[in-house]
Amino acid sequence: MYVWPGVAAIWGALLSGLACAGTYFAVDRGRRDLLPLARALYSAYATCVVVASAILMTLLLQHRFDVAYVNSYSSLELPFHFLLSTFWAGQEGSFLLWCFWGAIIGLFVWRSAKEQEAPVMIVYLATFLGIIAILCKQSPFKLLPPPTPADGVGLNPLLQDPWMVIHPPVMFIGFASLSVPFAFAIAGLWKKRWDGWIVRTLPWALLTFLTLGTAILMGGYWAYKTLGWGGYWGWDPVENTSLVPWLFTAALVHGMFLQKARKRHRKINLILACTAFATILYGTFLTRSGILADFSVHSFIDLGITGWLVGILGSFIGLSIVMLVWRWRSIPAADEEETPLLSRSVLFILGIAVFCALGLVILLGTSAPLLTRLSGTPSQVQTSFYGATTTPAGFLLLLLAGLVAFVSWKGATLKELFTSSRRSLIVGAVATAVALGFGARGVALVLLFTAVFTADMNLQAVMRKARTGKLGGAGGYLAHVGVGIMLAGVVVSGNYARTQRINLKVNTPTKVGDATLTFLRVVPGTAERKQAMEVRVETPRGKSYYAYPKMYQNSKTGQLMANPSIRSSAITDLYIAPQTGGESFGIVLLEAMAAGAPVLASDLPAFRQVLDAGRLGELFEACDSNQLTTCALALLRAPAHREKLRIAGLEAVQRYDWSVLLPEILSVYELVARR
Q: Is residue 608 classed as helix, strand or coil in its secondary structure?
């Protein structure tokens, strides 16, 4: 059973979208009299998508827990703003949000396409109809069998954050707007229009660049203030699936500026438009097929749509390849001209190449679970892989962004460039010297120098534009200033961050860096706020304030949640994150015991339980490095005791074998079935 108005709206979108595409095809074949009908059908398609979205939102706001989607992601206790965010908490809702933005954007696309309207709208509609078809199969309007639950399961506690109310809508604007450059590129190949599409799609490429970039920054800040591990980017595979399209979009934007200014490199931009869109589809496949379920907290489970996603991905990659091969020789190449090595054109091409190389390397690392699945056990690359591969690329991008500010299309000599960059070299050197004095070493100094150099070079370019009254062309330089400052902040925060894990006892002052922390009490939770711990923080100047890091049990899922308390100043953050106690079961110890290894572990409750209070392995007090050293040395000096622990461990893990567990699990299911 279904909520039939919602189902009718989804099917209406699919049918009107197909009819619209067919009518536009007839228009392209010469039936210009059908153009008003094609536009009316697109309006009907957009209306159906908007109506379906409105129906789902209404069901969520009305707490219709008889609807499976509403029951899975909402609950009575959620405040209004979090109730709104349940719309995109699941696969079906987020797909619908994607189509919603696409439908709205399409209303502007047909007005800007002009003589290319028919081919552009055919391709543009095709990029969304596959998703609409998935929603027809996997409907968000499915009803649960009676009786109706009194309350819903609720929103994932990690998503109950204001940033998650605005982050997905912004990100899906970027996803939807990336269909526009792709549609114009394919239409350009179809109709042999090589330059006009650049002018009309550049604003949409910039929109994608800005919205995806903003979403990535918001996601990083959410991770920093919510997850409690102290960082903002962990190279999570799902995070990477939004970063890679952004990198290719950045390459596309620079390529479009290059073609617009020099009438060159048409083939590169056509490839980039197709590749950027393909990375969106590939990321969608990775995150929604269940492939990353064991490797990312952000991924979705497999809803049985993997075949559909593969079909959509394969269709558009195939279409792109066929169109490029078909028209490759027809794409005009600019007349050969002598291009100085130190010219803006060369720097642009190098920057595009680095963006693409960086995107491909990250995509390769993100695809590790899929690639390793083909050879046996799925696994992911270590975060060190990304650090080793992206650092050189980041350095090159910074350097190119700094140099391009004072290099013209006609080129520049080394002497001219040195004269223009003298001030920036001095500023970068001063910043590096200061960082060196505060203990920075190695590659961090090189990156910091380059970031400051780039920011100052582009700041000079902005000021030069301001003096001549031509600020209209200063946007790129201003963006590079921001990039330089941001990456300088990344280098500084990564190099100077200090982490210390301590046990705070009640009313016992503990020195942490320059501050003194005193745990005072547990503040009970209420309907408006979560349970927190009150910690008094005394600064070196004698001032004090109270921090309230949160630790509570989610009433719906039973999860133990922890949120940090962050006190920010101009140059530092004091980040206090409560620890949940580590392993909830201790599976890592069972793996070691099954491998025949004697075990030495901290005395976390889960570890103590698995090791039978020390009978199956040695225990030491958590966070006590001295006791760890003592226990490890004693164990190394006692081979007979190690052998005893090894044998005891091998015997103990047999009770966790599937041959033992399976009958117990089946008995539970049989008991539930009888009731």
A: helix
